[in-house]
């Protein structure tokens, strides 16, 4: 069941991506010839508004066919005959929809997941916090003259403790302000300093969840950007990346861990799909956007033969990359 959920998540992300292209094509009044779920022979199909909607035999992934996207196709109402900004939005729509879907997943996640506060809910037995006199219910206001507003501020300050140097916690207890000094201990298993406190949790407001979503999105974007950079500089290898098999396996594991974990990984994967497709590489949306920008600068169309050749080479490289990563996924099973 969890593996099936993983496959459904991949299909959901593909539908979201293709739906982005579909929506912007419709907004630009460019005919969409076909929108299909899955591949193989059609099980069900219907035509509405000039578009054939298909449910195929193997309902995994999705695709959309927009009129006039083939190089050299100059149908008057087709994609290639449209103004620059219309073609740009249609190409950009897929990754944009994935990004929006990721943000929606993150908002839902942070709305449902309790948020740690600066109030202590539990003191671990025999921990530095217990030995120094910290108690559950204490609200941490400041550490070593540094005000703290979030639990992340507290964990960062503790983790920055060098050599287990003492930290002075300014707390509020029963309406009184107290200063308590404790010395963090190094936790070898997690390679960090701790004092042994567990935060109280509370539900976020919608505004707080929205803010957390954008912050988390920014953090994940930087991590993805840095990871891609490490691939090109040789600091990581292909074995560190996951293909479809690895993604399904990872999603299945998160589904088993619970609904919130599944929401989180779905949002991250949707974001990764959107960001990856914007890479200016042939055969990706980013590659098509790059060609479009070059056309806009030159003021004339790129030779269809050159366009096809470059995209074919790019597709072969991407396919080889996918096969190598997938082989690594299978080898790690």
Q: What can you tell me about this protein's structure?
A:
The chain has a four-stranded antiparallel sheet with strand order 5-4-6-7. The chain has a two-stranded antiparallel ribbon with strand order 1-2. The protein is elongated, with a radius of gyration of 26 Å. It is α+β, with helices and mostly antiparallel strands. The chain is built from nine helices and ten strands. It folds into two domains: 85-112 and 212-332, no CATH class; 115-202, Pdz3 Domain (Roll). α1 (2-27) packs across α6 (244-257), α1 packs across α7 and α2 (84-112) crosses α5 (206-233). It has helices spanning 2-27, 84-112, 128-132, 151-159, 206-233, 244-257, 259-277, 285-298, 304-332, and strands at 32-48, 51-66, 115-123, 139-143, 146-147, 167-173, 176-182, 185-187, 192-194, 197-202.
């Amino acid at each position: 069941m969890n593996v099936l959920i993983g496959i459904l998540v991949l299909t959901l992300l593909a539908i979201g991506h293709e739906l982005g292209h579909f929506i912007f094509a419709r907004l630009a009044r460019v005919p969409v010839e076909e929108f299909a779920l899955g591949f193989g022979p059609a099980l069900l199909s219907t035509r509405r508004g000039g578009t054939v909607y298909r449910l195929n035999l193997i309902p995994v992934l999705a695709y959309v066919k927009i009129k006039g996207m083939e190089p050299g196709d100059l149908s008057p109402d087709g994609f290639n005959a449209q103004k620059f900004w219309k073609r740009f939005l249609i190409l950009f729509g897929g990754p944009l929809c994935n990004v929006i879907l990721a943000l929606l997943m993150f908002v839902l996640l942070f709305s449902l997941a309790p948020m740690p506060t600066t109030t202590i809910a539990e003191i671990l037995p025999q921990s530095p916090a217990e030995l120094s006199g910290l108690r559950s219910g204490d609200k941490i206001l400041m550490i070593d003259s540094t005000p703290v507003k979030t639990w992340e501020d507290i964990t960062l300050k503790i983790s920055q403790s060098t050599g287990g140097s003492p930290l002075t916690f300014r707390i509020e207890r029963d309406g009184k302000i107290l200063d308590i000094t404790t010395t963090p201990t190094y936790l070898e298993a997690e390679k960090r300093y701790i004092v042994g406190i567990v935060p109280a949790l509370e539900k976020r407001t919608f505004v707080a969840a929205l803010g957390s979503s954008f912050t988390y999105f920014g953090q994940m974007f930087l991590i993805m950007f840095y990871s891609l950079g490490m691939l090109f500089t040789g600091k990581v290898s292909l074995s560190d990346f996951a293909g479809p098999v690895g993604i399904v396996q990872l999603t299945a594991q998160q589904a088993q861990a619970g609904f919130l974990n599944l929401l989180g990984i779905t949002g991250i994967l949707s974001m990764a799909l959107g960001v990856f497709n914007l890479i200016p590489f042939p055969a990706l949306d980013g590659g098509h956007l790059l060609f479009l920008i070059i056309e806009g600068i030159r003021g004339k169309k790129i030779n269809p033969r050159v366009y096809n050749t470059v995209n074919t080479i790019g597709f072969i490289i991407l396919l080889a990359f996918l096969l190598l990563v997938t082989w690594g996924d299978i080898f790690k099973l």
